Amino acid sequence: MLHVIKKKIRNLLPSKTFRSWRNLYVKAASRLHGKNLRRLAQLHGTDKIFGHNYIDVYEKHFYEFRKQSITFLEIGVGGYDDPNAGGESLRMWKSYFVNGKIHAIDIFDKTPHEQDRINIFKGSQADPEFLDNVHKKTGDFDIIVDDGSHLNVHIIESFNILFPKIKEGGIYAVEDIQTSYWPSYGGKQEVGVDGTAMSFFRKLADGINHMEYLIPNYKPTYHDCNILSLHFYHNMVIVHKGQNTAKSNLVSGGILQSH
Ligand SMILES: C[S@@+](CC[C@H](N)C(=O)[O-])C[C@H]1O[C@@H](n2cnc3c(N)ncnc32)[C@H](O)[C@@H]1O
């Protein structure tokens, strides 16, 4: 309801006036509701709560970062080719992460949504050179949310490029991973087969136990050594980054030493 009213006001007012009113609104919203991500999602009108239910998951995983001076990146601003549409989630993140720098990328020009603590870069999540240039300007990230094209190949490519650019202790989140089952996004109708974003992340889950593999001379991958945990939720995956190299002292050559 609130987002419908906001859209009507945006169409009535000159865009500069609308944007300065919106900035005041962001400030007030963060003072009143800063701790409550669900309330902020409703106020800002992001589909992270209207179309999906990602907010509770985000609150659980992101809460500890709320007051830290984090570097946050979202892939996908929203609103597609309309420069003035979208940006709801960026304003929500700005309200929630009170000391955070919110960066975003989109294939379309989204500069009208830039403001203090919100920077937007134009380019594709599947373009390694563009992502490297973004990273040169932002530095390493604490949190990355992939809410871009949702193409399976893009989800995997962006993760491979950007995960190494996350700080230890940081988080990488992928939304709408149900496209793994949708051929129109490069997914597969059969469940559990290779070549989808879900199968990519399922395989990474094996790597969490790589120290106990019985494969002679197994060379751990970057992901094996730097993924601390993976969390699968309805239509989304959350990956926590951290050193994962310590062998369990309860296991030796395939035998559990004690129980
Ligand atoms: C679902 S919307 C993002 C919504 C927004 N994150 C929110 O929660 O309010 C997806 C956005 O991703 C952008 N997009 C599509 N393909 C992309 C690509 N290859 N790289 C970066 N952004 C892309 C679209 O232009 C669109 O604005």
Topology:
Blueprint: H1 2-12, H2 15-33, H3 37-44, H4 47-50, H5 55-62, E1 71-75, H6 88-96, E2 101-106, E3 118-122, H7 128-138, E4 141-146, H8 152-162, E5 166-174, H9 197-207, H10 222-226, E6 227-233, E7 236-241, E8 251-252, E9 255-256
Parallel strand pairs: 1-2, 1-4, 2-3, 4-5
Antiparallel strand pairs: 5-7, 6-7, 8-9
Helix pairs in contact: 2-3, 2-6, 3-6
The chain binds S-adenosylmethionine.
Residues 46-48, 74-80, 86, 88-89, 105-108, 124-126, 147-149, 154 line the site of S-adenosylmethionine.
Features:
single chain; 259 residues; Rossmann fold; two-stranded antiparallel ribbon; binds S-adenosylmethionine
Describe this structure in words.
With 259 residues, the protein is an alpha/beta fold. The chain has a single domain (2-245), classed as 3-Layer(aba) Sandwich (Rossmann fold), CATH 3.40.50. The chain contains 10 helices and 9 strands. It has helices spanning 2-12, 15-33, 37-44, 47-50, 55-62, 88-96, 128-138, 152-162, 197-207, 222-226, and strands at residues 71-75, 101-106, 118-122, 141-146, 166-174, 227-233, 236-241, 251-252, 255-256. α8 (152-162) links the parallel β4 (141-146) and β5 (166-174). The longest helix has 19 residues, at 15-33. It is elongated. The N and C termini lie far apart (56 Å). The mean pLDDT is 92. S-adenosylmethionine binds at residues 46-48, 74-80, 86, 88-89, 105-108, 124-126, 147-149, 154.
